[in-house]
Amino acid sequence: xxxxxxxxxxxxxxxxxxxxxxxxxxxxxxxxxxxxxxxxxxxxxxxxxxxxxxxxxxxxxxxxxxxxxxxxxxxxxxxxxxxxxxxxxxxxxxxxxxxxxxxxxxxxxxxxxxxxxxxxxxxxxxxxxxxxxxxxxxxxxxxxxxxxxxxxxxxxxxxxxxxxxxxxxxxxxxxxxxxxxxxxxxxxxxxxxxxxxxxxxxxxxxxxx
Length: 209
What we know:
Blueprint lengths: L4 H20 L1 H32 L3 H32 L4 H30 L7 H4 L4 H13 L9 H12 L8 H4 L22
Helix pairs in contact: 1-4, 2-3, 4-6, 4-7
């Protein structure tokens, strides 16, 4: 079986992500995630203190709120990012630097695989199988992506089929080839019509003698 463009795309995503994480180091990659989380928490907790200052320059309340949240988020992100760079550079220059780069390579490869998996799951959800190109159907990595995609979709809140997330999960599972058939009425959240009631006015067959 020849190598398809999907195989090359997945391989490229994994290798590029692994290379970048190896250059940056495992510590910097982890602290980068921590910095975004810290910035989000700071924006949530501190925007009430920044909002009065924003209202002094912005008359629109909604825009002032957005500006206050954005400023707190960006300032926190920059401060934490500067600390992250210093810590990660110190570790990379130490004796455990090679280990940090090796762990970064593994982390980056896993991150790249996750990115490719999410992209594949959304593609098969948006594009029906009959409209997918041949090279994607014959890909070598598709048998690996399909069960992994099912597991990923299974982690979502899909218990309620009438909810928006439930309909998205059902559509994704259908695109991955393992879900039950979902018609247009089910995808829109409308209830499927039940069996037709017998017509009371219809003549009944005469009993046999």
